[in-house]
């Protein structure tokens, strides 16, 4: 399963049933879980911990030093969950000591060709990054988010769970959970209702979130006023609370 022309440094830990193609390099401080498929011409540096069942395609660079000019070789880490797909020429960098020293990716994500995950990012699970989507340092991406092709996300922004970012968008502020965003700079364009239906949200829950969206974006209220009005809505739910939390926890401010 490991090609004789692959270079695996002493100390690297390779799980069971892992395939590694020719001319791939794996550093000594890398751990790779069971049942991973690593194509040819891949570079994996570390410290990096990669879970089970991941597929990494040719020319991907995983766990490399970050591009932050403040980085001075400190020991930082990349942690990747299970069953992710990294297509051709993806780049994923380790963290910095200016944050928590860790870049972290969950499970069951798809990173299409030429996508970039910068230092100290935290990406949830079940996300899709379309071709050439790039997130700058310290960005957080919630579960089930979809980031379209050629999207650029400014450092420290938060992309809420179940949100949808249209292709070529420029994200300069936080995107609340469930919201669709488009434009340069991006603005809100309604709820990702179709995505919520596909993920099993019932009609009443989606309707409640839509009402909250209209309070936030259609009534001319400040964020604080809108949150107060949403909290007084007669129907409350955990899903609605997640929408409110993604707004309350914003440090950069939300797209308006």
UniProtKB/TrEMBL annotation:
SUPFAM superfamilies (UniProt xref): Trimeric LpxA-like enzymes
A Pfam short name: Acetyltransf_11
Domain UDP N-acetylglucosamine O-acyltransferase C-terminal: 174-255
InterPro entries recorded: Acetyltransf_C, Acetyltransf_C_sf, Hexapep, Hexapep_transf_CS, Lipid_A_LpxA, Trimer_LpxA-like_sf
Transmembrane spans: none
One GO BP annotation of this record: lipid A biosynthetic process
UniProt keyword list: Acyltransferase, Cytoplasm, Lipid A biosynthesis, Lipid biosynthesis, Lipid metabolism, Repeat, Transferase
Subunit structure: Homotrimer.
The family this protein is said to belong to: Belongs to the transferase hexapeptide repeat family. LpxA subfamily.
Protein name in UniProt: Acyl-[acyl-carrier-protein]--UDP-N-acetylglucosamine O-acyltransferase
């Amino acid at each position: 399963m490991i090609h004789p022309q692959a270079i695996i440094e002493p100390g690297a830990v390779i799980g069971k049933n892992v395939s590694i193609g020719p001319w791939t390099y794996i550093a000594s401080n890398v751990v790779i879980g069971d049942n991973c498929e690593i194509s040819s011409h891949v570079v994996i540096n570390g410290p990096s911990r990669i879970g089970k069942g991941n597929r990494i395609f040719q020319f991907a660079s995983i766990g490399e030093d970050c591009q932050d000019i403040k980085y001075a070789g400190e020991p930082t880490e990349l942690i990747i969950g299970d069953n992710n797909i990294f297509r051709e020429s993806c780049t994923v960098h380790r963290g910095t000591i200016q944050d928590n020293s860790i870049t972290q990716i969950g499970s069951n994500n798809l990173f299409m060709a030429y996508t970039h995950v910068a230092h100290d990012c935290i990406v949830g699970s079940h996300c899709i990054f379309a071709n050439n989507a790039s997130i700058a340092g310290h960005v957080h991406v919630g579960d089930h988010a979809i980031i379209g092709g050629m999207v650029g996300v400014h450092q420290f922004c938060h992309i809420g769970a179940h949100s949808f970012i249209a292709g070529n968008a420029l994200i300069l502020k936080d995107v609340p959970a469930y919201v669709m965003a488009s434009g340069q700079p991006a603005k809100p364009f309604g709820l990702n209702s179709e995505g919520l239906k596909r993920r099993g949200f019932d009609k009443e829950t989606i309707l409640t979130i839509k009402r909250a969206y209209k309070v936030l974006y259609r009534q001319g209220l400040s964020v604080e006023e809108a949150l107060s009005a949403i909290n007084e809505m007669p129907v409350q739910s955990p899903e609605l609370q997640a929408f409110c939390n993604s707004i309350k926890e914003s440090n950069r401010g939300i797209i308006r």
